[in-house]
Specification:
CATH architecture of chain A: 7 Propeller
Distance between the termini of chain B: 50 Å
CATH class of chain B: Alpha Beta
Structural class of chain A: mainly beta
Strand content of chain B: 15-25%
Radius of gyration of chain B: 17 Å
Distance between the termini of chain A: 29 Å
Number of helices of chain B: 7
Shape of chain B: globular
Largest interface: A-B, 57 and 56 residues
CATH topology of chain B: Glutaredoxin
Oligomer: heterotrimer
Helix content of chain A: under 10%
Strand order of the largest sheet of chain B: 1-10-9-4-5-6-2-3
Chains: A mainly beta (about 425), B alpha+beta (about 220), C mainly alpha (about 375)
Number of strands of chain B: 10
Strand order of the largest sheet of chain A: 3-2-1-30
CATH class of chain A: Mainly Beta
Strand content of chain A: 35-45%
Shape of chain A: globular
Largest sheet of chain A: 4 strands, antiparallel
Radius of gyration of chain A: 20 Å
Number of strands of chain A: 31
CATH topology of chain A: Methylamine Dehydrogenase, Chain H
CATH architecture of chain B: 3-Layer(aba) Sandwich
CATH superfamily of chain B: Glutaredoxin
Number of domains of chain B: 1
Number of helices of chain A: 5
Chain lengths: ~425, ~220, ~375
């Protein structure tokens, strides 16, 4: 296995080896990508792409994909090297790579447009190659949220619908070429409440987990107006669903009150459990099989003081499944939980990283942690607390130390939301070179 | 000389059992779940198969359509020199597994075919014939094909959504490695791609059920 | 010329007899005759078309949701494009044709005029102009045939689009409730003793019918006038107190106004009828809503501040909101729990039997 030939295969067939059934499944932030995605970056990422909400009165006011140099060896380290405006403001939110990691799909929760960027050829200059605006008409769903790669296609989780902008929704499948393939309603029977949010697949168990947030009416509402509206506050998801992945049919609905959001399977080989955080109740929930091999969801921990509504938003699991970063939006705090015993997560570190913090992403080796500030345009704080940034930290297991920061307001970019990493492609040539 | 030697090495990577048309030495582990029964679920069409012209292992030209319609087809894109055990050989192992499962069901086998389409211009018809000699030959047709032209190949790869590139790193004395994300395509009798498998998750039991599901859909098999 | 054509289109349907329709039993005769089916159909298409908003996300039907009593049950006050806040609860459009003025402050005189207000309001559908909407409709191929059928030879413009939407809204007629069958139709078994007791309270001791009028041969359940019942001042007061937030059923916490201000926008003022007349005496006055189908159209009051009919009855039992300037005829009623229950029971008899059919028809 140590011959130069095999090493070269290992290098060049990036991801293939790592993605084998027997070896560690390649679930990558880098640690939260689809297991079907190839090309995991196990070393230093070169770029961080930030899907950024345009702000009226700031710069060109447009939504944009901002590319930041993240390689410390580079002359432009920590600087914005590219900014691609897509036109208009449509509540930019999450992104996901296609299975071959050549394209980055990015969605807008308001007008339901999906933008497909080519990041395979030259990740320093992402190129908009396709805009898909057919989701509402083809599916009746609104708010493309999670983009989850499956072989040759993209599974897109909606948040709302075209009929009433409430929480009933479903998942859409598009081919990698952008053609609509199929739709799947979230269950509304056997305990299902119809809401959707995140997707996480464990192929070895033929199991797909989904979580539940809220509809357009709520995620587009001014947060002050929302919390003061008891009718609207009743309209949050309180469930997770276990699906038969092959059949794309719901198998079991778990009661997980208070809007369970991001779902992360443990990446450790042999582990078959997933963790999530409920936003409104500030709890950690574990999904795993019980002694009878039946899948169960159970509350295993508390995040901060739930009565103060810290609002846990994003989580990021370490590659070894032993740690979990949790960002709480309201108190601007980044927390580290020891997951050595997933049945009893323990907070071992916390740091206020901003006036408001939302997404948290880490490198595969866990040594770098990136944080952005925006939750939703109408949920972000007002006035001086409305900081907008990407902050990069080094993590040595004890302390988050600032590496660099991009002030998205000063740079006239907008509200910084979801992040994805890319690495410069290795030198390659076309097939014709073989002839 | 080198051209002939390498593919044989690739074949060897399959294990000697493959050469003897037996079940490979390391069969895929059975899935850690009960797959849904064939015919109990739907496989919505993902994309059409691309058009193109291919050469068979005797160097004759064909429309690719002849190999992607009329029967339920499991098609893999491969290159002969791929020796990564989790690359093309893994696909061959899965296909051998399915070949043998279907061989036990002659009623189904005549409705199904296997296709291995090379994307390496270095893979000559003679080489493809060597593969065919070792792997085909049961009651289940298994064709080894190559693109008739590099332009045609590029269009087919684009149509399948198979991204590949030639690595420029590595040892100059060794054959050039083609970086690709291995995919197998399950194609219905009308030429529509209905499922795609990647090396990470090749589960022959599930693939067999998928093939059966497409046959049931067309009234060619019972649930 | 155009209005002549318009008139013609309206006339075509005037022959349709209204009295024979059981859905109209108990409803006052409507001023406008029923519109031609082609006009209603065009209006329905326009009403539910999200392309008619600035960014393709809103239609009239996003807030007047057919399955939610043609109102919004899931929030107190709805949102417009990009989630912009609206001040008032979305009223039901069932039987909207009976109103002599539109909007809770009465600022529009006809449904035709009313329809343009949300289309052009910056915090609703946010279109830059009626012309821009007309141009968009004219550019959409799927409107060619329905438009030609409704308005032969005419182009989409302010008048035709307004007329079509108004025609659809007028078609949302839902009378013929169990109350109507009993009170106006003489069907003794249509109501229960408790409901009838509630109706007696409604008419007499509780004084509801003073504004929610009942006529000799029909009942609009509205006097079409504007009253201050104390909800306007209550809304202002609510913005000074901590807010109790129920995170999930059974788990609540209090949020201070200071905390709210850190992540919420300042609430907009709402002066009610005064915004139309400029008369301070009209501050916090809102037009009496009809109570037909009221069981389907919560939450209630101009700001959606009351979630249930029970809460509404409690509100009036207390004599309305805490406002010295409220209507002088509001006073504590001293109703027993049984009487309150019977009032609620009565209110639930006002649901038209065809509302589900109207909702299905809306999604055709």
């Amino acid at each position: 296995m140590s011959s130069p030939v095999l090493r070269s295969f290992r290098l060049s067939l990036v991801g293939l080896a790592a993605a084998a059934v027997i070896a560690a499944p390649a679930r990558a932030d880098e640690t939260c990508n689809s297991p079907y995605m190839t090309g995991l970056i196990k070393g230093q990422e070169d770029f961080v792409h930030v899907w950024t909400l345009g702000v009226k009165g700031l710069g060109d006011e447009s939504d944009k994909l901002v590319t930041i140099d993240a390689n410390p060896g580079s002359k432009t380290y920590g600087k914005v090297v590219h900014s691609l405006s897509v036109g208009g403001r449509g509540e930019v939110h999450h992104m996901g790579f296609t299975d071959d990691r050549k394209q980055l799909w990015a969605g807008r929760l308001d007008d339901s447009k999906i933008f497909v960027f080519d990041v395979g050829r030259d990740p320093s200059k992402p190129k908009l190659v396709r805009t898909i605006d057919s989701m509402p008409a083809k599916t009746g769903y609104v708010g493309p949220h999670t983009f989850y790669a499956m072989p040759g296609r993209m599974l897109v989780q909606g948040l709302s619908n075209t009929k009433d902008h409430g929480g009933r929704t479903g998942m859409a499948v598009y081919s990698n070429k952008g053609d609509f393939v199929a739709k799947y309603d979230m269950p509304t029977t056997n305990g299902g409440d119809g809401y959707g949010y995140d997707i996480a697949i464990n192929p070895a168990k033929n199991l797909m987990l989904t979580s539940s947030f809220t509809g357009w009416n709520n995620y587009m509402m001014d947060l002050g107006k929302l919390v003061a509206d008891p009718e609207a506050m009743k309209r949050f998801g309180n469930t997770m669903v276990a699906w038969d992945l092959k059949a794309m049919k719901p198998r079991k609905v778990f009661a997980v009150p208070g809007a369970p959001l991001e779902i992360r399977w443990s990446l450790k080989p042999g582990d078959n459990w997933a963790i999530t955080a409920s936003a409104l109740t500030s709890k950690l929930w574990l999904v795993k099989q019980d002694a009878n091999k039946a899948w169960q969801a159970k509350e295993v921990g508390t995040i901060g003081d739930p009565s103060k509504i810290p609002l846990p938003v994003d989580i990021s699991i370490t590659a070894d499944g032993k740690g979990l970063w949790v960002n709480t939006f309201m108190d601007g705090t980044t927390r580290y939980f020891d997951l050595s015993n997933p049945e009893a997560p323990k907070q071992t570190y916390s740091k206020v990283t901003g006036k408001q913090v939302n997404m948290v992403s880490q490198s595969w080796d866990g040594k770098r942690v990136y944080i952005t500030s925006s939750l939703l345009a109408n949920w972000d704080k007002k006035g001086a607390d409305d900081e907008q940034f990407l902050r990069a930290f080094a993590w040595d297991g004890k302390e988050l130390k600032p590496l660099f920061e991009v002030d998205f307001t000063k740079e006239k970019l907008g509200r910084a939301h979801h992040m994805k990493f890319t690495a410069k492609p290795k030198r390659q040539s076309a097939l014709a070179a073989l002839e | 000389m080198i051209l002939l030697l390498r593919p044989v090495m690739a074949l060897l990577a399959l294990g000697s059992a493959a050469l003897a048309h037996e079940v490979p030495k390391a069969p895929a582990a059975p899935p850690d779940f009960t797959p849904p029964a064939a015919g109990s679920y739907a496989l919505p069409p993902i994309q059409p198969t691309p058009a193109g012209t291919v050469l068979d292992s005797r160097g004759r030209r064909h429309d690719l359509k002849a190999f992607t319609t009329g029967k339920v087809t499991l098609l893999s894109l491969f290159y002969a020199q791929c020796a990564d055990p989790e690359g093309c050989p893994a696909a061959f192992n899965a296909m051998i597994d399915l070949r043998d499962r279907l061989a036990a069901r002659p009623d189904l086998a005549r409705r199904v075919r296997l296709v291995s389409l090379s994307f390496d211009p270095r893979d000559t018809p003679e080489l493809l014939a060597a593969f065919g000699h070792h792997l085909a030959g049961t009651n289940l047709p298994w064709s080894f094909l190559a693109a008739a032209s590099s332009e045609g190949l590029a269009a087919m790869l684009d149509g399948f959504g198979q991204d590949i590139a030639v690595e420029e790193e590595g040892d100059a004395t060794q054959p050039r490695v083609i970086s690709h994300m291995l995919k197998l395509f399950l194609i219905d009798r009308r030429g529509q791609v209905r499922e795609i498998y990647t090396t990470a998750f090749l589960q022959p039991e599930v693939m067999y059920n998928d093939i059966l599901t497409l046959l049931i859909e067309d009234g060619l098999a019972q649930r | 010329m155009r209005s002549a054509r318009l008139g013609l289109a309206l006339l075509v349907a005037a022959t349709t007899a209204q009295a024979a329709d059981p859905a109209t039993l108990g409803l006052p005769a409507l001023a406008a005759p029923a519109a031609a089916p082609a006009l209603v159909e065009l209006g329905r298409k326009l009403f539910f078309d999200r392309r008619l908003s600035a960014n393709g996300t809103m239609s009239c039907g996003m807030c007047h949701v057919p399955e939610q009593g043609f109102a919004s049950n899931e929030l107190r006050t709805p949102l417009g494009v990009e989630g912009r806040s609206l001040r008032r609860n979305a009223p039901t459009l069932l039987n909207v044709a009976i109103y002599t003025s539109l909007f809770l402050d009465g600022r529009a005189a006809s449904l035709e005029a009313q329809a343009w207000d949300p289309l052009l309001a910056g915090n609703e559908m946010a279109n830059p102009s009626a012309e821009a909407v007309a141009t968009r409709v004219a550019s959409l191929p799927d409107y060619r045939a329905p438009f030609a059928a409704a308005f032969p030879g005419a182009a989409p413009d302010r008048a035709t689009i307004g007329a079509a939407i108004a025609a659809y809204e007028r078609s949302l007629v839902a009378g013929g409730s169990r109350f109507d069958r009993w009170w106006f139709g003489g069907e003794a078994g249509a109501t229960t003793a408790e409901e009838r007791e509630g109706f007696a309270l409604f008419r007499f001791r509780a004084g509801c019918a003073q504004c929610h009028s009942i006529g000799e041969r029909d009942a609009a359940f509205t006097d079409q006038r504007f009253h201050n019942i104390g909800t306007g001042r209550a809304r202002v007061a609510a913005h000074a107190a901590p807010v109790r937030v129920e995170l999930v059923p059974g788990l609540a916490t209090n949020v201070s106004q200071a905390a709210l201000a850190s992540f919420g926008e300042a609430p907009a003022t709402d002066d009610g009828r005064m915004e139309v007349t400029g008369d301070t005496a009209d501050r916090w006055k809102y037009r009496t809503p009809s109570l037909r189908n009221v069981a389907l159209t919560g939450p209630y009051m101009h700001d959606g501040s009351l979630a249930t009919l029970e809460a509404v009855v409690e509100f009036y039992d207390r004599g309305g909101g805490d406002d010295p300037g409220k209507a002088e005829w509001l006073f504590p009623l001293g109703l027993t729990p049984a009487e309150k229950a019977s009032l609620v029971a009565f209110l639930k008899t006002l649901t038209g039997p065809n509302v589900e059919a109207l909702a299905r028809d809306a999604r055709r």
